[in-house]
Amino acid sequence: MTSRTGFFLLSGVLFLVALVCVGEGVQLIATGKPLGIGIGICAFVIPAIGVWFLRQTIRFGRASERLARELEAEGGLPVDELGRTKGGRIDRASADAVFARRKAEAEASPGDWRVFFRLAVAYADAGDVPRARKAMQHAIKLHSASAPVAAG
Predict the structure, then answer these.
(1) Exposed end of the chain (fewer CB within 10 Å): N or C?
(2) pTM for this prediction
């Protein structure tokens, strides 16, 4: 299963769970008891947080894909130069070497979204997903700030 398929499958499950929670929340509020009303309100808030998180994840994914397409059009996507084990896994020393180079590039050009995109890929290859996400968010922010504003 691809990550995209898994994402859509889990998104569907989230929406089904949200519908069940909201339905239960309505029934709890309908009891008229203070405790039931309080729990019923929580049954509305929790799915709202889940849907908000899903929306943020979708926006992040779309923005990342947009940057990848733009970088690909410029010919600037990072090439896979990582060493692999016999089993096909990324060699840790190779990933660390590429990461060190990408980090130096990012420090040398702190305002270029392209180097932060490549740094995010290097973080992901090194197995540091939280930092990869932060680096990609920074690349998205830099790209948004550098995009020309349409005259309106």
Answers:
(1) C
(2) 0.76
CA distances to 23, 74, 119, 130, 137 from 115, in Å: 47, 13, 6, 17, 12
- Is the separation of the CB atoms in 74 and 90 below 8 Å? no
pLDDT tens per residue across span 26-78: 999 999 999 999 999 999 998 999 889 989 989 999 999 999 999 999 988 88
Q: What share of the chain is helix, strand, coil (3-state, %, to 5)?
A: 75, 0, 20
The owner of tokens 């990550």 is: 3
Closest-CA residue to 138 (of 122, 118, 121, 116):
116
What is the C-alpha separation between 135 and 120, in angstroms, rounded? 5
Smallest Cα–Cα separation from 82: which of 66, 99, 95? Answer: 95
Alpha helices in 75-148 (DSSP H): 92-108, 113-125, 129-146
Q: Please calculate the CA angle 33-39-45 and round it to the nearest 5 degrees.
A: 140
pLDDT over 70 (residue 1) = no
